[in-house]
Amino acid sequence: GNSVTQMEGPVTLSEEAFLTINCTYTATGYPSLFWYVQYPGEGLQLLLKATKADDKGSNKGFEATYRKETTSFHLEKGSVQVSDSAVYFCALPIIQGAQKLVFGQGTRLTINP
Amino acid sequence: KAGVTQTPRYLIKTRGQQVTLSCSPISGHRSVSWYQQTPGQGLQFLFEYFSETQRNKGNFPGRFSGRQFSNSRSEMNVSTLELGDSALYLCASSYSGLDGTQYFGPGTRLTVL
Lengths: 113, 113
Hints:
The structure holds 2 protein chains of 2 kinds.
Chain A: E1 3-6, E2 11-14, E3 19-21, E4 23-26, E5 33-38, E6 44-50, E7 56-59, E8 62-65, E9 75-77, E10 86-93, E11 101-103, E12 107-112
Parallel strand pairs in A: 2-12
Antiparallel strand pairs in A: 1-4, 3-9, 5-6, 5-10, 7-8, 8-9, 10-11, 10-12
Chain B: E1 5-7, E2 10-13, E3 19-24, E4 31-38, E5 42-50, E6 53-57, E7 64-68, E8 74-78, E9 87-94, E10 103-104, E11 108-112
Parallel strand pairs in B: 2-11
Antiparallel strand pairs in B: 1-3, 3-8, 4-5, 4-9, 5-6, 7-8, 9-10, 9-11
């Protein structure tokens, strides 16, 4: 089935710094790709998604582009805030169309004021 | 629309007991999936239910079971609890569209003593 490899953390940045969290995938076909965020003590929130190659997902200043040439879906934000401190997960369906998601190991992001 | 709700939020049990967790999906969503999250193993898929039928299953022992009711609410049961079952159990619902987008609840934190 499909799989995902995510940049290991933790990542610590200062407020207003540029953020990149790397995610690469192995997949048959072109499944949708997702970024989820988990704040302390909470469940996962869908941050953004892209459903086909070259699509760019965006939300709350975060962006990720579905790149089939490099099999990547890196998460970026131009200027991070303390409130962005959380754990970020890259994910995709185990097979295209399935409701079973496989997740990266998560990247813990800490933003210092 | 109300989000995915899970009850209870916290649970403490002792080894050998059994436990039942409940999940109410977003209104109109017919697919409910369950995941286990632990620091060591990350996020692992347990099973998915759609229209009261188990459609997908992960690699967990038979002690883990679930069911779905006609109103799409789902329950997950773990029998003969072990210390290693301590985890955050997350429920996710989806409309069962083809792109695999899932929306997660806040989770139930299970501690086995």
